[in-house]
Design a protein that fits this description.
Blueprint (H helix, E strand, L loop, with lengths): L3 H8 L2 E5 L3 H6 L3 E4 L18 H13 L5 H8 L10 H22 L4 E5 L8 H25 L40
Parallel strand pairs: 1-3, 2-3
Length: 192
């Protein structure tokens, strides 16, 4: 489980804002992610006079964090009026796309990409893009922690405080005292 400090570090690579000015963010190297409807990260609850923005964002947070098989129950328990793109079977399909998109974005952030989430909500107003930003940063930190742990317990590296284990003997072809060639230090050149 990532610490708050690790999540905060991951938040440094993700940001949120309005769709106005998104081109400027892209020009500075950010990948701009639109979280409006009908996309997979869109909020099923529109802001209406009967559904204030804060309530819609809280509902979205419950929806976003719900496992795919429980999305219908979460939406039903929350009540309110859904946007037409989330009616019936479309909700299940969008929940599947939501999970895939969250994982894709978390992997991008964990690999060092700079992400900027945009929506049409005015700056300072409650908006679900903040929920998405935090979810992606948390998932990115979790992926980074898992990658670090995987390196720490790799017995062939020796970087976990223990001496490295000898490489396993070759299955065929090489004499037992020879070592495999070292991996290249630079990427292979493209063919002419």
């Amino acid at each position: 489980v990532p610490t708050d400090r690790q999540i905060h570090a991951a938040m440094a690579t993700v940001s949120d804002g309005t769709v106005h000015g998104a081109d400027e963010w892209a020009a500075h190297g950010y990948i701009v992610i639109d979280v409006r409807r009908p996309g997979p990260l869109g909020n099923p609850w529109p802001v209406l006079s009967s559904q204030p923005a804060r309530w819609a964002v809280e509902s979205y947070q419950r929806y976003l964090l719900a496992p795919r098989r429980q999305v219908g129950a979460v939406v039903q328990a929350r009540g309110g009026e859904l946007h037409e793109t989330f009616e019936g079977d479309a909700l299940r399909r969008l929940a599947e796309r939501r999970d895939c998109e969250l994982l894709r974005l978390a992997r991008l952030a964990a690999d060092g990409a700079w992400l900027h989430f945009v929506c049409t909500c005015p700056p300072g107003a409650p908006c679900h893009r903040v929920v998405v930003t935090h979810a992606v940063a948390t998932m990115s930190a979790q992926l980074t922690c898992a990658r670090i742990r995987a390196r720490e317990i790799d017995p062939y590296r020796g970087d976990n405080g223990n001496p490295p284990m000898p490489a396993p003997p070759p299955l065929w072809g090489a004499p037992p005292d020879s070592r495999p060639p070292s991996p290249p230090t630079s990427p292979p050149s493209s063919p002419p």
